Amino acid sequence: MSTWVAPFPDRPVDATVDLPGSKSITNRALILAALADGPSHLTGTLRSRDTDLMIDALTALGAGVRVDPTDPTAVTITPAPLHGGSVDCGLAGTVMRFLPAVAALADGDVAFDGDEQARSRPLGTVLDALRSLGARIDGSGLPFTVHGQGALAGGEVTIDASASSQFVSGLLLSGARFDRGVDIAHVGAPVPSMPHVDMTVAMLRESGVEVLVDEASPRWTVAPSRIGAVDRAIEPDLSNASAFLAAAVATGGRVSVPRWPARTTQPGAAVTEILERLGAVVAHDADGLLTVRGPARIAPIDVDLHDVGELTPTVAALCALADGTSVLRGIAHLRGHETDRLAALSAEIGRIGGDCRETDDGLVIVGGADLHSAVWRTYADHRMATAGSILGLRVRDLAVQDVQTTAKTLPDFIDMWETMAGSAA
Q: Quick one: how far is CA 109 from the chain centroid?
């Protein structure tokens, strides 16, 4: 497996980085468009492995998808009767957890499979929920087959979504098309990454779907209804932006991101508050330019990342560079992501001389160690690759293994990172 030596700038980074569209918004928008009552036009669509897998899957099931030949981020989706086919999930949680409900509405068998690493990701919750709503499904994890019958009864279902918020979103996105809608009750530990469910609810409402939310239970109810066609301009991906903003903190430099939304449902927006707690100065001007200036000394942090677990690798990398002991809490569910992120971060920070240990629900990281070069393993996880790249800004000759895995959500990561770091040379 190839390695890439991360850039090691000789002075603080000073750069402006324009990020492509949000993966989370893109894949939700694609599904809603495929189930809508007319054509939808998406601009600023992220084109990455995860989103291309979603486009390919919807096309395989019969939806009309046209990509503007002059602008690959401009996509038109025309709904059509859904039929059987094959779905390659890769490592995309949004594909493997959102599309089974869509497949249940198809007329024919839909076979799902994905990368070898994806076969260990938990899927039983959403598949069992669909069975209780009337679907016929063979299997409890990848590979599995949904025997689509052209419709789904729907109704009430109780699930334990404590392993992933995607279980809730996957049912909600298609629920309006079920004969009786869907009424989802959650039992168990708190749902992680709840802002992603809020994003799903907001996008459904934008599509004209009435969603009732009982936050105390919690419970989500969608009545059977049409899904309106909506033309959407996709916001920049704020989670992907977090690694670039972290470069300013790691080097004591400046990184600006244009088009940062004043209001958003993206959980990644929380990165700015976290960076401020680490010592950065954050400014957001009236034109949407967000700027982070790094501190002379990175402060340790004690933070609950339960709702923004996707930021953990970025935050952990900065904590390894901090002056003191940091505690990251509320992220036990990261053991079921692309890899066991807690074990992976502990192992790789330790490999370069850092001090990181797992707890029941997170990590304790003692910063200030004398870090040294090594091969930083990524475990086919794009966020492990970006974490290694952040540390490479401060650790000369750090070699990141399989950095190409960043194509999952950011195909141009290497060029963008080298350009940003090169601006400091």
A: 28
The answer to whether the beta carbons of residues 405 and 4 sit under 8 Å apart is no
Q: Is there a catalytic annotation at residue 310? A: yes
Alpha-carbon gap, residue 237 to 241, rounded angstroms: 6
Residue 358 pairs in a beta bridge with: 363
Question: How far is the C-alpha of 88 from the C-alpha of 75, rounded, in Å?
Answer: 20
Q: pTM for the whole thing? A: 0.89
- Low-confidence spans in the chain with pLDDT less than 70: 1, 423-425
Report the distance separating Cα 269 and Cα 237, nearest Å. 9
Residue-range domains of the chain with CATH: 3-20+236-422 (3.65.10.10), 23-153+170-179 (3.65.10.10)
List strand residue ranges (DSSP E) for 238-307, in order.
Answer: 254-257, 281-284, 290-293, 302-304
Percent of the chain with pLDDT over 90: 96
State the DSSP H helix or E strand holding residue 126, giving kind and residue range, or none if neither: helix 124-132
Q: How confident is the model at residue 381, as a pLDDT?
A: 94
Would you mind telling me the total number of residues written for the chain in this entry?
425
Residue 284 CA: distances (Å) to CA of 66, 249, 277, 333, 393: 36, 16, 17, 32, 25
Compute the distance between CA of residue 350 and CA of residue 371 in angstroms, rounded to an integer: 9
Handedness of CA 194, 199, 202, 208 (dihedral sign): negative
Q: Which residue has the tokens 């929920």?
A: 129
Catalytic residue among 310, 338, 348, 418: 310
